[in-house]
């Protein structure tokens, strides 16, 4: 057999891989990265690893629906199967032209992923895939087909088989094998089967119609009805166990007009547009959402500035703390969980690690606040896109039926980054400004990954699977974050995923209710971006978003009802001071702040004097400072600091002894353990912080003082965790190798295969022939013979096959061209590693010359 004939008819998957070029091998390793961890020593090991159950299951899970249907059809076809048989199973007797046109791509993809090998006249599905997809009583085939006649009659008595032949009008045979073969030929003959089925009673045809699309198994009694008896006698139903019958595969295929699947899906369902908006409106809406997202995260961190909620013993937030956070942010609890998890994933909050462990802002939060507005958003959006933390599962149950809490363990879902990126890519495939229908996005994702996520009820619908829920969460979270606006992908969101500019702008007028029959072809999912590519995309998104933000304002509008209106985003310094001096009453396009005695006292506690507050308001208000606000500040300032608290455990000092009398007489002071030490001094059992809180609860405005008697300024942002790193995403299997690693891996596998398969000259006393050593057996020669052969190869320039054991004890075969032998070492060009290396001679197990090239 010539070399070309061997290449055309490989006898194993390893041989099929051996005739591939380097580009094809690299494509295999890129699509199935688990095969490269660690790098296989040769192509035989690569083929063995590609056929393991875990690797095959992972590969099947990543097939699209039509390619998976093709593999399922091969699992019920002959082994090996010619391409024409596969075409009949997929396209049916009528040869559906759409299916026929799409089938070569599916077969090529299965070949690329090493799930199918062999020429078109001998297509073979790898054994593990056939075992997973072929029908059995315990695991029916996804096609709904049952066993073939040969399999179904394996335990049937020869006499019974002959009775079936007689019932269908076939001559008897001398053995069961030929009888089963004759029956199978009858069932695959379209014309004769049509005549056989035409003579069936209507009730018998109804039974076949119920079984034809699966499941193919049914139950019968020990004395079946006449219409069932007719089917059993003619072999159209075959018994598989007492009381159980099956519809043979050949009969079902005839009734299906040759199709293995009821509905082949060669073309992915389109992503449909629900409405179209002007791109400028989409970008402006997304920019507004982005500003709101930044404000929400900052508000969350301010709430936790002095130390946030306590950490549960098992980790995470309690349900009560999540509710409090939702109330503080004025959002539903699932949305609060999203913001908390996003801040945590971005490294802005973490546990402080103290004995009384609490959540607090990290030092990275202060650095993040110093960034430009667009860059702060880009960091949040980039974190969201790549994080595996999934806030949507908060409130659900884990495998041990424990409630999943925000910031707690077990919230990582490794498929989340891929689904987020793919959903946004589908949106990017629509015309600019078009928003999709949710169902069309979900249908497309189900087509692309039909096996991801369990089906609870066995039907085709997968509304409860994780991938579908991740897609729904992605659509809502992208809107919250400002990646989309009005459901359409904004320009910064398009840049965030590295999508190209849209080919043409949407020309439909803006109209929120317009239903557009837009069917836009979306390209297949690309490989996930590398960290460097993602960083570049995030930076580009920030540059596109920056011009969409309004300029920050340096003024507010003060009103007589003790409120201030910020008609837009404020400068950071103004927002910080106003956030201490007043409480946020409402948010939106304009933020409303309200001044209260408590908020003014908070500003005074932070070190501001009344004169400073008056000057600040006059400087930043476009309206005159209202008189009620002036009176409020002066009134609080007059009372501020009249009482001073220090450490005794604590004490209260006041020049007005009548005020101290009032405190002692108040029943609310009983828990503070107060007693008079002097006419102007009270001692307390409570600590200074508790004493300050208790006196303020009684209506007083005390100030803390130092040991020197100076007023202490308590700043709200004093508590920070030690430096913390953001949580690392949990990868979904091995990472996709880059081009450098792929090139090196292919070269190493090729070289290892060369070492394992290159013909050798027979050594002294060995069998004749130049075949490679079986099973990777290393050559064995004595030290003197090894040295002599090496020295001879240096003079002749010939290549040698050697066995080598490294310092860790790992054995390998190598093909080397010795350059120099001295000092117990051989320096040679190693064809296996494609570089010059030096090897200790005492680690060489043996050496053999390569056979002469006879090609």
Automatic annotation (TrEMBL):
Residues 494-534, 754-779 are annotated as: Disordered. Keywords: ATP-binding, Helicase, Hydrolase, Nucleotide-binding. The keyword Repeat does not apply. Residues 763-776 have a biased composition (Low complexity). Coiled coil: none annotated. Residues 556-678 form the Helicase XPB/Ssl2 N-terminal domain. GO terms for molecular function: helicase activity. Pfam families: Helicase_C_3 (PF13625), WYL (PF13280). Residues 785-847 form the WYL domain. InterPro entries: WYL_dom, XPB/Ssl2_N. This is Helicase-associated domain-containing protein. It comes from Streptomyces thinghirensis.
């Amino acid at each position: 057999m010539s070399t070309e004939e061997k290449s055309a008819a490989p006898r194993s998957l390893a041989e099929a891989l051996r005739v591939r070029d380097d580009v094809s091998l690299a494509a295999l390793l890129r699509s199935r990265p688990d095969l490269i961890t660690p790098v296989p020593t040769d192509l035989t090991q690569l083929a063995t690893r590609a056929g393991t159950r875990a690797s095959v299951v992972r590969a099947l899970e990543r097939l699209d629906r039509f390619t998976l249907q093709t593999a399922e059809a091969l699992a019920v076809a002959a082994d090996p199967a010619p391409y024409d048989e596969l075409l009949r199973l997929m396209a049916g007797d009528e040869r559906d032209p759409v299916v026929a046109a799409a089938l070569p791509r599916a077969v090529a993809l299965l070949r690329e992923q090493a799930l199918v090998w062999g020429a078109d006249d001998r297509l073979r599905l790898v054994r593990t895939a056939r075992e997973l997809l072929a029908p059995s009583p315990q695991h029916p085939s996804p096609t709904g087909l049952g066993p073939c006649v040969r399999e179904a009659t394996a335990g049937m008595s020869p006499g019974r088989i002959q009775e079936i032949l007689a019932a269908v009008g076939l001559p008897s045979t001398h053995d069961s094998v030929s009888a089963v073969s004759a029956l199978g030929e009858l069932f695959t003959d379209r014309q004769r089967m049509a005549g056989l089925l035409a003579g069936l009673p209507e009730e018998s045809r109804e039974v076949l119609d119920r079984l034809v699309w699966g499941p193919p198994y049914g139950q019968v009694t020990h004395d079946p009805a006449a219409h069932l008896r007719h089917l059993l006698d003619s072999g159209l139903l075959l018994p598989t166990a007492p009381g159980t019958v099956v519809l043979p595969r050949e009969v079902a295929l005839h009734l299906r007009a040759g199709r293995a699947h009821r509905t082949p899906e060669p073309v992915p369902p389109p992503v449909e547009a629900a409405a179209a908006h002007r791109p400028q409106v989409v970008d402006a809406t997304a920019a507004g959402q982005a500003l709101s997202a930044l404000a929400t995260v900052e508000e969350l961190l301010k709430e936790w500035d002095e130390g946030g909620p306590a950490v549960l013993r098992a980790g995470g937030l309690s349900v009560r703390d999540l509710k409090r956070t939702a109330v503080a942010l004025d959002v539903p609890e699932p949305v609060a969980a999203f913001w908390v998890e996003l801040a945590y994933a971005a490294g802005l909050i973490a546990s402080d690690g103290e004995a009384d462990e609490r959540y607090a802002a990290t030092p990275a939060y202060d650095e993040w606040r110093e960034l430009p507005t667009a860059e702060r958003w880009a960091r949040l959006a980039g974190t969201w896109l790549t994080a595996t933390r999934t806030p949507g599962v908060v409130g659900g149950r884990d495998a041990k039926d424990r409630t999943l809490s925000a910031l707690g363990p077990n919230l990582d879902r490794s498929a989340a980054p891929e689904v987020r990126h793919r959903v946004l890519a589908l949106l990017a495939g629509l015309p600019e400004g078009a928003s999709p229908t949710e169902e069309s996005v979900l249908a497309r994702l189900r087509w692309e990954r039909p096996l991801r996520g369990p089906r609870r009820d066995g039907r085709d619908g997968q509304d409860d699977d994780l991938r579908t829920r991740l897609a729904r969460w992605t659509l809502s979270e992208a809107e919250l974050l400002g990646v989309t606006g009005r459901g359409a992908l904004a320009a910064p969101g398009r840049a965030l995923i590295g999508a190209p500019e849209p080919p043409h702008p949407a020309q439909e007028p803006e109209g929120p209710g317009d239903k557009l029959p837009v069917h836009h072809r979306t390209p297949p999912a690309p490989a996930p971006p590398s960290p460097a590519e993602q960083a570049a995309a995030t930076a580009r998104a920030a540059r596109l978003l920056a011009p969409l933000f309004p300029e920050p304002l340096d003024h507010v509008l003060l009103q007589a009802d003790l409120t201030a209106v910020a008609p837009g985003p404020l400068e950071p310094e103004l927002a910080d001071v106003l956030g201490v001096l007043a409480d946020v009453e409402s948010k939106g396009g304009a933020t409303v702040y309200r001044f209260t005695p408590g908020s003014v006292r908070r500003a005074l506690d932070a070190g501001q004097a009344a004169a400073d507050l008056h000057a600040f308001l006059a400087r930043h208000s476009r309206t005159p400072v209202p008189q009620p606000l002036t009176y409020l500040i002066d009134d609080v300032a007059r009372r501020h600091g009249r009482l001073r608290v220090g450490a005794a455990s604590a004490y209260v000092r006041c020049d007005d002894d009548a005020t101290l009398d009032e405190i002692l007489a108040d029943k609310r002071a009983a828990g503070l353990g107060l007693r008079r030490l002097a006419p102007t001094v009270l001692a307390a059992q409570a600590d200074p912080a508790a004493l300050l809180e208790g006196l303020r609860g009684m209506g007083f405005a005390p100030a803390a003082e130092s040991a020197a008697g100076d007023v202490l300024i308590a700043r709200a942002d004093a508590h920070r965790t030690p430096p913390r790193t953001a949580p690392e995403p949990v990868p979904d299997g091995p990472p996709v190798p880059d081009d450098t690693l792929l090139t090196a891996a292919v070269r190493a596998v090729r070289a290892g295969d060369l070492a394992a398969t290159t013909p050798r000259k027979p050594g002294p006393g060995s069998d004749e022939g130049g075949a490679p050593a079986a099973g990777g057996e290393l050559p064995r020669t004595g030290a003197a013979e090894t040295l002599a052969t090496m020295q001879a190869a240096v003079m002749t320039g010939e290549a040698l096959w050697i066995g080598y054991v490294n310092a860790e004890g790992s054995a390998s075969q190598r093909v080397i061209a010795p350059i120099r032998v001295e000092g117990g070492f051989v320096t040679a060009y190693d064809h296996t590693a494609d570089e010059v290396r030096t090897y200790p001679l005492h680690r060489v197990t043996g050496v053999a010359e390569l056979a002469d090239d006879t090609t």
